[in-house]
Design goal:
Shape: elongated
CATH class of the largest domain: Alpha Beta
CATH topology of the largest domain: Metallo-beta-lactamase, Chain A
Distance between the termini: 31 Å
CATH architecture of the largest domain: 4-Layer Sandwich
Helix content: 40-55%
Bound molecules: zinc ion
Largest sheet: 7 strands, mixed
Radius of gyration: 24 Å
Low-confidence stretches: 400-405
Strand content: 15-25%
CATH superfamily of the largest domain: Metallo-beta-lactamase domain
Number of helices: 14
Strand order of the largest sheet: 1-2-3-4-5-6-7
Length: 405
């Protein structure tokens, strides 16, 4: 727990929770992850001295922000969220078993099944007030003034920010993602809906107009300095705009998506950290956001048939030794993606061949080493590590030492 600005307290956790003290009670912004929220609340209450809580703001529907909403709400505080909050909460709840299994691949420390204890249920919230993008919610509590703005952010369309106009302070939630500055994660591997790049760019313009001097995000540390904030916000906006425009140009020019993904990278002056959001994945996401999943090149894509279904047929046509020689040549020249494509075909057709499994491991390690020295994207590393763990689990006697740490 820290006092991050005058009478503004932050209790950190997987997601931070803030208490803003006024002369007439307190405002809460974000409530943390359910298994940490009670302790965060305890610390904040110590700091603000058990004054009444007037309003609770949820920056968006993600688990690490809404976990303590029920602990804070004694029935007198007003719970406030973005208009899209209910819809985001609905689909995240309905798809929870699916999302949980995907999350477990990426984050193996998660429990096997989602937690079902009633006290840990953080879904099914019914905000008292929903803020729409067209109508910011301006109000005062005691000696402090606030404006809540519904702005589609980097982590979903239901991002709500809280602006303290007299103090130049913006509670940004996950508007920018977990780091500032960084390239935003408009595609998330764990399987959420595509995020909307154009709406996010427009929302950045709205925040730029406020000229904040301090950002209080729900992850990471305080960001201060109006010039620093403005210049980096511009860089983020321009980088997304650039990726967006490159993608649209490629679509209009008939350039294949795979080619765009291989060649796209940010110009030097827009360079941003890609550890959370990766530029080539954003390009693919924007492409499919506009054009959906039918890429207009393979008829079989229209039907419920997958290429893996013909892999056993392929195995009867392939000269295994020739295939291994070609894979080795790709790997010797660090063409890891091409090696991986061939390996995946071979695995599907002859899944128990030790030679193929060993090459699979080598190609994953090659991709992993490259990922570490290029974008160092967390999700790419999580995925590659998960595949390496799977190989080791399937064959504990293999030479695999698992991913390097
Ligand atoms: Zn978060």
């Amino acid at each position: 727990m820290t006092e991050v600005a005058s009478r503004i307290y932050r209790a950190t956790g997987v997601g931070s929770s803030y208490a803003i003290l006024t002369s007439d009670g307190a405002i809460i912004f974000d409530t943390g992850l359910v298994i940490q929220a009670a302790e965060q609340r305890e610390k904040l209450l110590e700091a603000i001295g058990h004054v009444p809580v007037r309003k609770i703001f949820l920056s968006h529907s993600h688990a690490d922000h809404v976990g303590g909403a029920r602990f804070w709400n004694d029935g007198t505080a007003e719970l406030v969220a973005h208009r899209e909050f209910l819809e985001e909460q609905r689909y995240l709840t309905e798809l929870n078993p699916y999302l949980h299994q995907r999350n477990r691949v990426l984050f193996p420390w998660l429990p096997e099944q989602p937690l079902t204890l009633p006290g840990l249920n953080f879904r099914g919230l019914s905000p008292d007030r929903l803020v729409s993008p067209e109508a910011p919610f301006a109000f005062s509590v005691g000696d402090r003034s606030f404006v809540a703005l519904a702005l589609s952010g980097a982590e979903g369309s239901d991002n709500l920010v809280l602006w303290l106009p007299d103090e130049g302070i913006l509670f940004s939630g996950d508007f920018f993602g977990p780091l500032f500055p960084q390239f935003p994660n408009i595609f998330t591997m764990r399987g959420e809906k595509t995020r909307r790049p154009f709406e996010f760019m427009r929302a950045i313009d709205q925040i730029l107009a406020l000229q904040p001097t301090t950002l209080l995000p729900s992850h990471g540390s305080v960001v201060s300095g109006s010039d620093y904030i403005a210049s980096n916000m511009l860089r983020i906006r321009d980088a997304i705009g650039w990726v967006h425009d490159q993608t649209v140009s490629a679509m209009n020019a008939g350039i294949p998506l795979s080619q765009l993904m291989q060649t796209i990278s940010l110009p030097a002056h827009m360079n941003l950290d890609e550890s959370h959001g990766k530029v080539s994945w954003a390009a693919k996401s924007i492409w499919e956001y506009y054009a959906t999943w039918f890429h207009f090149d393979r008829t079989s894509e229209l039907y419920g048939v997958d290429q893996t279904e013909v892999l056993p047929d392929l195995s009867r046509m392939i000269d295994i030794n020739m295939a291994l020689t070609i894979i080795d040549d790709h790997m010797a020249h660090k063409r890891w993606e091409k090696a991986m494509l061939l390996i995946e075909l071979m695995l599907g057709s002859a899944p128990h061949a030790a030679e193929v499994r060993e090459r699979h491991r080598q190609a994953l390690l090659g991709l992993r080493q490259r990922a570490e020295i290029t974008e160092h994207n967390d999700y790419e590393l999580y995925w590659l590590d998960a595949q390496l763990r799977k190989i080791k689990a399937e064959d504990p006697t293999s030479t695999a030492n698992g991913p390097p740490h």
